[in-house]
Amino acid sequence: MTARRLKKDKRWAFKKFCILSYIVMSFFTLVWLRNEVVSLEKEIGHMESKKTKLVRVAALASAERANMYSVGKIEEVAMKQLGMNVPNRERIFTVKKTTGAAPYKASVEAASELNRAEPAISLSNPKVLKKDKSDKRRR
After folding, report:
1. Nearest of 98, 129, 124 to residue 112 by alpha carbon
2. 62 and 114 share a domain?
3. For residue range 49-74, what is the model confidence (pLDDT) as tens digits?
4. Domain count of the chain?
5. pTM (predicted TM-score)
6. From residue 37, how far is each of 44, 45, 48, 49 by CA, in Å?
7. CA–CA separation, 14 vs 5, rounded Å?
8. Alpha-carbon span 23 to 30, nearest angstrom
9. How far apart (Å, rounded) are the C-alpha atoms in residues 69 and 86?
10. Closest listed residue to residue 123, CA positions, set 103, 97, 108, 99
11. Residue 85: CB partners within 8 Å, gap ≥ 6?
């Protein structure tokens, strides 16, 4: 055999080795991908079952909360645990609502009258402006 033919055989052997290794790596890659897909499907199934359980628990908690805030349940707890009872008509007192202190309101007209001797805003009722007698004289 000549050197040229040996070189050609070596190239062909290298090409065969590369093709064979490519096929083997592709096969293992496909097996690995399939394994990952199966494991992800299992994980998704587990998460979905967990989600349905949590939705069921949330619905039960919501129903229990609605039951706890119902008027009948509150009355029952107030009467049994706190010792409260329904008052008689004689024991009911009505309290009139009084308005508390409120800030005074000022307007642009009131600000222009600051230079006058009389205050522009009545302290007893901030909405009513006192009219100055000098306004009548000007007209």
Report:
1. 129
2. no
3. 999 999 999 999 999 999 888 888 88
4. 2
5. 0.43
6. 10, 12, 16, 18
7. 14
8. 11
9. 19
10. 103
11. 79
**Tokens 């890659």 map to which residue?**
29
| CB 120, CB 131: distance < 8 Å | no
Q: How far apart are CA 74 and CA 41, in angstroms?
A: 48
| pLDDT tens digits, one per residue of 34-54 | 999 999 999 999 999 999 999
Contact at 8 Å (CB) between 43 and 36? Answer: no
DSSP three-state, residue 52: helix
Q: Which helix (H) or strand (E) holds 131?
A: none
110 and 52 belong to one structural domain: no
Q: What is the CA radius of gyration of the chain?
A: 46
AA letter at 121: I
Q: Indicate the residue among 62, 79, 96 that finishes a domain.
A: 79
What are φ and ψ of residue 129, in 5° steps? -95, 135
Whether residue 90 is contained in a domain is answered as: no
| Distance separating alpha carbons of residues 43 and 77, to the nearest angstrom | 45
